[in-house]
Structure formats: structure tokens, C-alpha cells
């Protein structure tokens, strides 16, 4: 009898695993648990069991009924959806959903690349205030009192002496006021100009300033550093030239041009058919500036440079309207 109960138990377990639908479950119930089912029949056979064996057989039989009943109950609940397992709830045949990951703004990407290159050449990074005074933005940079850049047209004045910086060069002054040579820093940041807004100019933009002052710094080091930068940033096959220029705070001053990266020097709308693009202003720090910051101009020489990040990013990505950089239109931003 115990043998028989064990066989039925195995049968219950194997048929249980075959149940795939509610009607399978119902057949299982009828077969094992109904009033004329297998388990009930076994109970009927109890009368033939000897009185010594009865407690043992009774216990085994009760266990069997319990097993069949709870297994059936659980299976039915599961099939009705009450306690579906996680795997059954997830429909693996559904198409995947694309994750929208934000991207860095093209200006941020450009700035990060510029920083990476100059950090690799031993420069550190510093910043300064966007609200400046006339002294740092102009006077200490050797702008004569009547210089046209002080004109109301270019500068947003807050009052007579306070303004929104028009370039990152005042950060040079702040660095030199606080630190003796050697200094080797780049200074990225926002600058503001009171200009008519158009495809080519905006009332705010970004610059990266560079400054290196030490004993014996020469113009050829300035050239070498900027050429190394341009080759890393634009590719080693670019051609370049330095043109004489003028800035009050550098002497001599120059502007650096590279072959137009859009037409490769053949001449196009962007380079105004010259084949060349101006990428930055630079020069040897004017000894007059050292007087303002208390550096010994007999002992130290240095160079400075400044470049506009928008212009560089626009050339790099072929963007023809500066305003789109500030509109935060996701259709534009998603392309980077
Ligand atoms: N500050 C200058 C500008 O805004 C650029 C510059 C920086 C030139 C440093 C020379 C040296 O045009």
C-alpha cells in the first residue's frame, strides 16, 4: 500500500508539470482529487489495511492528498494570472525601447578637446569673473583711455567702472596679480559684446585665453606651442601662417591662420575665397602690462593668445549660424 501511494505521488508530480492551461488543471483535479478520483479510491482501500499499518498508511495518504490539493490550487492561481512570475509577465518578443542618452553640447565638446591638448603641454586651467571692472578688462591691459574698444558699442557697461568682460584677457591680469612666474595657464570662459545679433555674431560667446610667463620665453616658443595645438586639433596636414597684428597688451602681436578646413585651401564662402581662416590672436606680453601687475619686465618675458570657441566649433562641425548654438533645439543637439 505504501508502495502504491509513493507511485501515485510520482504520478501527481509528473502530471503537475504537464499542466499548461486551466482545462489541464481541471482534468488533473478530476483525476486525482474528485470524489471518485484516485486519492479518494486510495482512502477507500484503507479498510483493507491492517490495524498496525493503518497509522502509517493514513499519514502517507493525507500527505499525498495535501500535496495534490495545494499543487492544484497554486497552479490554478498561477494560470489565472494572480501570481504570475516575472518571466511570464515580460513579453520577450516585444521590440526593444531605445534609451535616450543626453550628449554634450558641441561647444562643451570643443572646449574639452582644447583643454585636453593644452593640459598635455603642461598648462593648467584657471577662471575669472564675467562681471569685471574697467581696470582689469582695459586699463591694466594697456588700452589707452580713448581706445575704440572701450566704446559703448562694444561693451555692456553696468556702470561707469563695472562691465561684462569683452574678452578673457582680464583673467591674465588676475593670475599675474596673484602669482609670480613661472605661470602657464589657459583660461576658458564666457565673454560679452554689445553687437548686432546675426549669423556670424552673438552678444555672448566663449574664448580660451593662454598665458605663459617665465625667464627667457620667446616668440618661437609661442609659435611652436600654437602650431602643436593646431596640428593636434585640426590634423597634422594643415598649413599655417602668422600675420602681424595689433593688440594693446601684446607686442609684437600676430594672428594665426590655417588652411581653410572646409575647402582645403581652394577658396570657399566661409574663408571668403582666400583659402585661409583666422583662428586666434596672440603675441608677446607687452612690458607695460608687467608694470600693472608688478612683474619685473627686465627679468621675465611671456606670451599670450586668445581664441573664440564658437568659431572653432562652427568650423569643426560645419555649422553656419552661431545662433543655433544657444537655442537648445534638441533636433540640433542630438546630432552630436
Ligand atoms: N583678447 C583678444 C581678443 O579678444 C585676443 C588675444 C588674447 C590676443 C591674447 C592676444 C593675446 O580679440
Structure description:
The radius of gyration is 41 Å and the shape is rod-shaped. The protein has two domains: 82 residues; 228 residues, BirA Bifunctional Protein, domain 2. The model has no long low-confidence stretch (mean pLDDT 90). Helix 1 runs parallel beside helix 4, helix 2 runs antiparallel to helix 4 and helix 6 crosses helix 11. Helices cover 39% and strands 19% of the residues. The chain has a seven-stranded mixed sheet, with helices on both faces. Strands 2-3 form a two-stranded antiparallel sheet. It is α+β, with helices and mostly antiparallel strands. The longest helix has 26 residues. The chain is built from twelve helices and nine strands. It starts with a helix and ends with a helix. Bound molecules: phenylalanine (PHE).
If you consult CATH, what is the topology of the largest domain? BirA Bifunctional Protein, domain 2
Q: State the secondary-structure class.
A: alpha+beta
The spatial strand order of the largest sheet comes to 1-4-5-9-8-7-6
In the CATH scheme, the class of the largest domain would be: Alpha Beta
How many helices in DSSP terms?
12
Biggest sheet descriptor: 7 strands, mixed
Radius of gyration: 41 Å
Number of strand elements: 9
**What is the assigned CATH homologous superfamily of the largest domain?**
Bira Bifunctional Protein, Domain 2
Helix content class: 25-40%
The succession of helices and strands, N to C, reads: HHHHHHEEHEHEEHEEEHEHH
For the residues shown, what is the average pLDDT?
Answer: 90
Q: Name the CATH architecture of the largest domain.
A: 2-Layer Sandwich
Strand content: 15-25%
Bound molecules: phenylalanine
Q: How many structural domains does the protein architecture include?
A: 2
| Terminal CA distance | 77 Å
Overall shape: it is rod-shaped
Unreliable spans are none
Amino acid at each position: 500500500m505504501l508502495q502504491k501511494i509513493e507511485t501515485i505521488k510520482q504520478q501527481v508530480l509528473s502530471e503537475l508539470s504537464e499542466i499548461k492551461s486551466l482545462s489541464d488543471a481541471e482534468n488533473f483535479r478530476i483525476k486525482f482529487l474528485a470524489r471518485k478520483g484516485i486519492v479518494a479510491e486510495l482512502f477507500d482501500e484503507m479498510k483493507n489495511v491492517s490495524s498496525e499499518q493503518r497509522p502509517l498508511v493514513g499519514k502517507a495518504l493525507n500527505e499525498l492528498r495535501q500535496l495534490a490539493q495545494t499543487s492544484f490550487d497554486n497552479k490554478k492561481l498561477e494560470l489565472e494570472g494572480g501570481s504570475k512570475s516575472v518571466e511570464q509577465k515580460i513579453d520577450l518578443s516585444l521590440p526593444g525601447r531605445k534609451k535616450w542618452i543626453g550628449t554634450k553640447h558641441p561647444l562643451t565638446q570643443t572646449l574639452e578637446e582644447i583643454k585636453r591638448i593644452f593640459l598635455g603641454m603642461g598648462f593648467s586651467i584657471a577662471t575669472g569673473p564675467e562681471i569685471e571692472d574697467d581696470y582689469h578688462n582695459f586699463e591694466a591691459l594697456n588700452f589707452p583711455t580713448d581706445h575704440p574698444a572701450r566704446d559703448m558699442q562694444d561693451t555692456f557697461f553696468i556702470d561707469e567702472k563695472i562691465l561684462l568682460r569683452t574678452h578673457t584677457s582680464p583673467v591674465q591680469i588676475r593670475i599675474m596679480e596673484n602669482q609670480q612666474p613661472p605661470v602657464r595657464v589657459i583660461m576658458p570662459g564666457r565673454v560679452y559684446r554689445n553687437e548686432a545679433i546675426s549669423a556670424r555674431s552673438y552678444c555672448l560667446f566663449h574664448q580660451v585665453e593662454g598665458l605663459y610667463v617665465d625667464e627667457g620665453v620667446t616668440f618661437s616658443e609661442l609659435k611652436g606651442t600654437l602650431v602643436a595645438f593646431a596640428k593636434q586639433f585640426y590634423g597634422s596636414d594643415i598649413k599655417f601662417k602668422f600675420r602681424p597684428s595689433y593688440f594693446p597688451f601684446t607686442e609684437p602681436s600676430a594672428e594665426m591662420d590655417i588652411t581653410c578646413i572646409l575647402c582645403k585651401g581652394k577658396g570657399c564662402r566661409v574663408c571668403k575665397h582666400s583659402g585661409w581662416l583666422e583662428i586666434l590672436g596672440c603675441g608677446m606680453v607687452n612690458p607695460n602690462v608687467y608694470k600693472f601687475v608688478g612683474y619685473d619686465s627686465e627679468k621675465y618675458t611671456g606670451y599670450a593668445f586668445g581664441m573664440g570657441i564658437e568659431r572653432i566649433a562652427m568650423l569643426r562641425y560645419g555649422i553656419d549660424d552661431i545662433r543655433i548654438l544657444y537655442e537648445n533645439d534638441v533636433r540640433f543637439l542630438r546630432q552630436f
